[in-house]
Amino acid sequence: MAKKVILSQEEQIGFAAGEIYNYLNQNGTTSFAKMKKELDLKGNFADLGLGWLARENKVEISQKGPAVKVSLR
To answer: What is the pLDDT of residues 50-64, one digit of tens each?
Structure first.
C-alpha cells in the first residue's frame, strides 16, 4: 500500500510551478486557460505556480483581449 505524502502549501505551489514549466517546455507558447485545463491543477495552484515562475523571471506573460498567453523566457 502506497503511503500518502502530505505536501506543505509552498511545496504544492512549487510542484505546480514545475508542472507549468515542463508543460511550456514541451508545448511552447500557449493560452493560460488551455494550459490550466490540461494540467488540471487543483484549486488556484495553477495561478500560484505561474506567479512563482513569473517572480523567478522564468516566464513571459502577455495579454491580447481576454486571452492570456504564457511562454518560457
So the answer is: 999 999 999 999 998
pLDDT in tens, 28-50: 999 999 999 999 998 899 999 99
E-assigned strand segments in 2-72: 30-31, 59-64, 67-72
Third-level CATH fold of 9-72: Arc Repressor Mutant, subunit A (1.10.10)
What residue spans define the domains of the chain? 9-72
DSSP state of 42: -
Phi (first) and psi of residue 12, to 5 degrees: -65, -40
Cβ proximity of 71 and 31 under 8 Å: no
**Contact by Cβ (8 Å): 21, 72:** yes
